[in-house]
């Protein structure tokens, strides 16, 4: 099936990457950008499907909990537009639909979702179908330790027509951390949706801490979907744990070959800093790229299972 | 009145002439001042019948003028009100302004919160004061940081919060005042760490645009202005003349040895029940919880249920019951460890009994300060233990009474600890070169070489693999600490040096007045494990040390001797420990711990020609005895605990070429103790001479030259030789 195809693809080196690595990676101020494109036909849910899914969830209205949800459905109100004629909820349904617009505006929708649903609710990932695909940004970072440690590598991946664009920003010295962070937030902008794995607890707070540390103004937090929450919900009984490598193996069927264990990444980068030997960097870059690719595949798997569930 | 009481005391059947001296300090009337206050505060004070003393008004005016203030008036002179009033005034006038109250210990913050809330409610203002420390529930933290205008915390906690400074942006950017309460605890090596921490704290506050005034509140200090400057790096106005009203206070010196059949415990209990029996509400301070319980038990047998016990770690409801019992006079007497010395609001009592000198006159005066309410007379009874310093005060009451003020020293700490602060500062915000002096730049560069910092165009940044503030805890910024644990909880942390001496296997460790017996010490893993057990005995590590003199920074010669101070390399070996019960050694055990070497401050005395009357065979025992006597008197002149300074004597020192006694600060890097002793040398010599020559024993006893800590178990010792040496030194160096 499809997962087998992509698993094989993950362990391949993309043709276009060699050129970029060997050629001239884009030079930033103290960091380099390593770009690679991977052929990928990523199917997001259609706007119509997403809209239908949103409409059928009455709980997105203020005042509707489990009890009303059931009784309203029994009375024949199957969707939010149905409620427009309802004596009590009609007004609120109108206001909500107006705030969303047609087709629903993703920022407005995510505001509603965050207010009423747990972050692991499937509408969070399905609503990505409302976004322009270029604005969906997967990200993953590497640091020299835990909290309060410098960030030296951030990978982003963006969906584009027929391919996936992976950009890795790698600090060539710790001098490059601040410009690298600035470049990242500039690229993300405030209208994107971020996709991460454990990023709400780890990656994003670290970026915030480091921006505060350097006194760089903080952008408004974009829409941020943490796939860890969704994996926990979907695969609760299937997996012994939720570290990315366990999920890769159990759900995506990926076995990494010759991969640098994540726990060694800080030591490798430290060793690069001490010796200046770029050979220490290749395994880190490759590890980080595999992480970000897994993230893309994981979203695909979660969306598919959502389809199955319908 | 006092005369009647004393006469009755002397008529008691158990009286054996123990009362050796009585000294009465006269009463003093209050000096009031009128000062214009914000109407809310003025009416609050008026409604509660509070008039401000002159020194309180002066503190308020100094604060209003925008200057830092250090208040060192005695216990119960209204220090807290003196800084609360102007801070509240500032916070009423600027409704964004905030303040942070910093305490040396968690428990003290809780006590002060109640007082502040009372004023808040009384004035009808809303400041949402709140404590914020390790006990603050996670769910409440965000709200406190969003809404509280006064945060009460402790230095250890604040150190840990600094890297998360952006969460405190609102409070820091509007910070109007920082209060450092109980600041006399910030002395020695800990004080040096706190001063470097404050520098980092102020740096962060300035980063957010805050410009707070600092108020330091402390027990009496002899060198207040210098201390404030050393602690905060800024100048402060001194408020030290107490204008609160004082009743007459009488000090009774009680020599328990006059009654060989009665233990110190039983005599303390008798005095306590005698005083409470005469309608005097009395607090009795002991040095350990075990002692407190024994005295409490014995006193209850004599006086009935009106005697309560108190120890650290009581929960708020128990504490409130106790405070209430004292107020209603249902409790007539209370026995406590030093936990009640300060910070807790039990008001004034009629009498205090001090069992065992509490280590410093500063602490002794705080305990004595618990006796005395408003203008009524009060009584303080001092009962010494059988050790040199305690006994010295019985014979020299003037030394006890002279003043409660001590010189507080904030030494320059060792490079390892300074490096810890530099690493933490760089983890908080990039550390620019302009913020560092030459020596610090050099430390920062070497931290770069060790992979702890990295130099970038934005400054030095922290790049260590673990969190800087965990690696460098405030107690020990060299990054090496031994955690003392019991049932998995950490009681305290110690540097490896102190852990060898105080947390070796078999050691009885006193923590908050509770005794713990150490079972295991793992220096490599940095852990010591103990069990909680009430034991009647205590232990002393037997330390054998060598000191190599490295350099001389100051010296002074006389005809036959030379005294000098400088730096030395100390090698300490803990060879065993003694178990002592009621001042008697009951066993000696061997220990096998690796030796530890460190550089420190040292002071030495060399004898350039023989001392008349001492045969060469007696020389080792004589200088050894002199060493012990001088060490025993050190806490009289410099604020330090027994064991904070060590000594070595040798008939031939390779560096000086003469018989020499070397004293060293028992802290890696030094703590400024021996420099202080060098400065007070003549007083030290005279006190040691008096101690030994006045002691009635023949060959030396625990009250003069026998030391419980001696690594060679007090061998050899010659008391006659000791007296000759100290006499000759007194003649050459004495102040008379």
Describe the structure concisely.
The complex is a heterodimer of chains A (310) and B (736). In chain A, 47% of the residues lie in helices and 15% in strands. With 310 residues, chain A is an alpha/beta fold.
Description:
The complex is a heterodimer of chains A (310) and B (736). Chain A is an alpha/beta fold and 310 residues long. Chain A is built from 14 helices and seven strands. A seven-stranded mixed beta sheet of chain A has the order 1-2-5-4-3-6-7. Chain A is elongated and about 75 Å long. In chain B, helix 17 (415-428) crosses helix 18 and helix 21 crosses helix 23 (681-694). Chain B folds into four domains: 39-239, Rossmann fold, CATH 3.40.50.300; 246-401, P-loop containing nucleotide triphosphate hydrolases (Rossmann fold); 415-471; 539-733, no CATH class. Chain B has 24 helices and 27 strands. In chain B, a hairpin with a 2-residue loop joins strand 23 and strand 24 (584-590). Chain B is 36% helix and 24% strand. Chain B has 736 residues and is of the alpha/beta class. Chain A binds chain B through residues 144-150, 173-175, 177-178, 208-209, 212-215, 266, 270, 273-274, and chain B through 163-166, 207, 427-430, 451, 454, 456-458, 461-469.
